[in-house]
Amino acid sequence: MIVLSHLQASQILAAHKNGQSVVKVSLDLNLTENEVRLQPEAVLFPTGESLDWASLAEISDNEIACYTVEDHAAKAIKGFSEFSGRVYGLMPTASAPTMLISGIPMHRIKDTNPHRDTLNKIKAIAPLRGDVLDTTTGLGYTAIEAAKTARRVVTIEIDPMAQEIARLNPWSQALFEDPKITQVIGDAFEEIEKFEAESFSAILHDPPMFSLAGDLYSRAFYQQAFRVLKHNGKMFHYIGDPESKSGARVTAGVIRRLQEAGFKRMRRAPRAFGVVAHKE
Ligand SMILES: C[S@@+](CC[C@H](N)C(=O)[O-])C[C@H]1O[C@@H](n2cnc3c(N)ncnc32)[C@H](O)[C@@H]1O
After folding, report:
1. Residue 123 belongs to what H/E stretch?
2. Do β-strands 42-44 and 274-278 pair in parallel, antiparallel, or remain unpaired?
3. Does 136 contact ligand 1 (Cβ within 6 A)?
4. Residues 125-169: pLDDT tens digits?
């Protein structure tokens, strides 16, 4: 799989302008680098694929899309979700890409990047051992990171289009390859009821913003989270910027409802924009 963004396309175009015949560039959105050959008509990739210069220029002009290269043509990684009625796309950063849903990035990208954002979430409840529930898969970054130390990770995604985008993202491949990760397509609010009590030692809860997924911030959901957690288990709950007016308001409500659901020792995790709650 070759995936390019404006960052790599610009790099290739600059090398071509410089008169170079070869340039080292990432073909998997910054994970590794490969040599590509710059020919008069097109760029030649190590896999035998090629792309003409007009297509490269088109990619370099679009800062919010990533493209696969297949059959000597570039195709933007995006799709319309029948489920939500929204357009999903993969947006590059200098690190891992994020997913845009109707133009809204799924991870933090201001003053940070999706990879660092993920590491902060995991750090907030590390060490992760035993069986972990990741309530909303997205691009699978939290699930993939959790699976590095956990025994097993179950991750739930409501929208099949999100899974399709993840399938084309080089940074999400472990989601489909790591045998420790089990993917469930469904509504976390309903799926969580199907797990036996005390099934998980930790929960990663990284829902969309409150206004888009209120039921994932409800006392009923937290009661289920409490039920499926083992004693001494913990949950990280992403909320949003605690310094913002809405973030502060939502955080206060979340902490109150977590308490009502039985959670103890609520700890704010400001670097991860969330809170950690414990089941004693
Ligand atoms: C903030 S993203 C999760 C990011 C993810 N933790 C990662 O590391 O890439 C939220 C995801 O939750 C999904 N979602 C929204 N409502 C859901 C629900 N009720 N059950 C499961 N997934 C849901 C959205 O489609 C979106 O992909």
Report:
1. helix 114-125
2. unpaired
3. yes
4. 999 999 999 999 999 999 999 999 999 999 999 999 999 999 999
Ligand 1, residue 216: give the atom nearest the CA: 19
Rounded average pLDDT over 255-275? 96
Q: Tens digit of pLDDT for each residue in 191-237?
A: 999 999 999 999 999 999 999 999 999 999 999 999 999 999 999 99
Query: Beta partners for 181?
Result: 153
- Give the residue carrying structure tokens 């179950």: 154
Ligand 1 pocket, residue 216 CB under 6 Å? yes
Write the single-letter amino acid at 129: R
Dist. CA 243–CA 63, nearest whole Å: 29
Whether 159 lines ligand 1, by a CB cut-off of 6 Å, is yes
Residue 220 gets which letter from DSSP?
H
DSSP 92: -
- Amino acid letter at 257? R
